[in-house]
Amino acid sequence: MDQLPIFLFGAGGAASWVLQGFRRAGIPVAGFVDDNADRIGAVAGLPVVRPDNPDVDRGHLAESTVVLAVMNPAGDAVFA
């Protein structure tokens, strides 16, 4: 059975940490999905795409594993 491609949702610091952990464990990551993809471009040599990019193959993403890799340090204030 083939492994589904893995994309990280988010391309900031938290996603970089997740990528490092996956790489140490030998788990391949295909790229990142982030709203700021136009500004970011790539992270550690992997592509960053917007979730609403019409050039993204929706079937490919739909058949992928997407790992949430975002962090909001001010998030506690939202739930206070």
Give the topology.
Elements: E1 6-9, H1 13-24, E2 31-33, H2 37-40, E3 42-43, E4 46-49, H3 58-62, E5 65-68, H4 75-79
Parallel strand pairs: 1-2, 1-5, 2-4
Antiparallel strand pairs: 3-4
Concise overview:
The protein is α/β, with parallel strands linked by helices and 80 residues long. 32% of the residues lie in helices and 21% in strands.
Task: Explain how this protein is built.
The radius of gyration is 13 Å and the shape is globular. β1 (6-9), α1 and β2 (31-33) form a beta-alpha-beta unit. Helix content is 32%, strand content 21%. Strands 3-4-2-1-5 form a five-stranded mixed beta sheet. The chain contains four helices and five strands, in the order βαβαββαβα. It has one domain: Rossmann fold, CATH 3.40.50.20. The model has no long low-confidence stretch (mean pLDDT 85). With 80 residues, the chain is α/β, with parallel strands linked by helices.
Task: Name its key features.
80 residues; Rossmann fold; five-stranded mixed beta sheet
What is the CATH architecture descriptor? Answer: 3-Layer(aba) Sandwich
Q: How many DSSP E strands? A: 5
The radius of gyration is 13 Å
Q: Estimate the strand proportion.
A: 15-25%
- H/E series, N to C? EHEHEEHEH
Unreliable segments of 5+ consecutive residues = none
Helix content: 25-40%
Q: What class would the helix/strand composition place it in?
A: alpha/beta
Read across the widest sheet, the strand sequence of neighbours is 3-4-2-1-5
Please summarize the sheet with the most strands: 5 strands, mixed
Treating each run of at least 4 consecutive H or I residues as one helix, how many helices?
A: 4
Mean pLDDT: 85
CATH level-3 fold name: Rossmann fold
CATH class reads: Alpha Beta
- How far the N terminus sits from the C terminus, by CA atoms, comes to 45 Å
What count of structural domains? 1
